[in-house]
Write a structure and sequence with these properties.
With about 280 residues, the chain is mostly beta strands. It folds into two domains: about 150 residues, Neuraminidase, CATH 2.120.10.80; about 110 residues. Strands 3-4-5-6 form a four-stranded antiparallel beta sheet, with no helix packed on it. About 0% of the residues lie in helices and about 45% in strands. InterPro entries: F-box/kelch-repeat_ARATH, Kelch-typ_b-propeller, Kelch_1, Kelch_FKB95. This is (rape) hypothetical protein. Pfam families: Kelch_FKB95.
């Protein structure tokens, strides 16, 4: 079953929060804004139907409420926040949908349709990860790992060259793109580069069953699942060293933050989403 959990930085434990009754279980998009987390679209439980619903988790009170729905259902869409507005694109049933891209203004509680990308293809409709850099919302194509973006400032779309390798998980901090595969190899590259370089000093993470990479304030967090269904998290600080500008990581802490297993029973656990919110 789907569970929403909250990680407290002091206790290093994930605390269950009741999920919204009709919360989609797979391929929702997620953004953090101010004190809340927005869960956008996704496939409805037991149905091959893309949901247009948007849910808001108030992290001050750990309560849910619905906000105005999108004009079209989405799953595996891009979603990012710029200047207090939530930009969403892709994930539609029909690639040619005139509502392929939308923006939500929390202040007015309204959605507005954006001019869609002219040269979009099927790969652009399924998003692996969303990143926000330089006032642009970047989407990572699920299949090729290529980057394309929307710039709200001038209302234009653009593309980046395809990198050498596709990573499983991504996050961005200070214009540096970080990636991680599913066995704990953490890499980095500057936004204009194509070659991935290994973050040094993180050998302890290798062969972990990594399931999510996330921003933790000025650090990054890596989540992985243990063999018996326990969820682990490590907070990593980063620094550049030497003339080559190598990036080294240091594990500040690493702990099991949640356990779901029972005696003699192996439980399937996945980390679907992660977001940092200050309340």
């Amino acid at each position: 079953s789907f569970k929403t959990l909250q990680l407290f930085s002091t206790k290093k434990q994930l605390i269950p929060i009741p999920s919204f009754p009709t919360q989609p279980e797979t391929l929702s998009s997620l953004v953090a804004l101010d004190w809340g987390i927005y869960v956008i679209g996704g496939f409805k439980d037991g149905e091959d139907v893309r949901s247009p619903d948007v849910l808001l988790l108030d992290c001050r009170t750990n309560t849910w409420r619905k906000v105005p729905s999108m004009s079209v259902g989405r799953a595996a869409a891009a979603a990012g926040v710029i200047d207090g507005k939530i930009y969403v694109f892709g994930g539609c049933e029909e690639l040619s949908s005139p509502n392929w891209a939308e923006v939500f203004d929390p202040n007015t509680q309204t959605w507005e349709t954006l001019v869609p990308m002219d040269d979009r293809n099927e790969g652009d409709n399924v998003i692996r990860e969303t990143l926000v850099m330089d006032k642009k919302v970047y989407a990572v194509d699920f299949w090729s790992g290529s980057l394309f973006y929307y710039s709200p400032g001038d209302g234009k779309w653009g593309r980046k060259k395809i990198p050498e390798q596709v990573q499983s998980y991504y996050c961005v901090m200070e214009k540096v793109l970080y990636g991680c595969d599913e066995v704990g190899n953490v890499v980095w590259r500057d936004s204009e580069e194509l070659e991935w370089k290994r973050v040094k000093g993180l050998e302890a993470l290798q062969w972990k069953r990594v399931r999510k990479l996330s921003i933790f304030g000025v650090n990054i967090g890596v989540f992985w699942v243990g063999l018996r269904g326990d969820v682990w998290c490590a907070e990593i600080s980063l620094e550049r060293r030497g003339k080559e500008g190598e990036i080294w990581g240091r594990i500040e802490w690493s702990e099991a933050v949640a356990t779901f297993y029972r005696s003699f029973t192996r439980t399937k656990v996945e980390v679907l989403y992660a977001a940092a919110v200050n309340v």
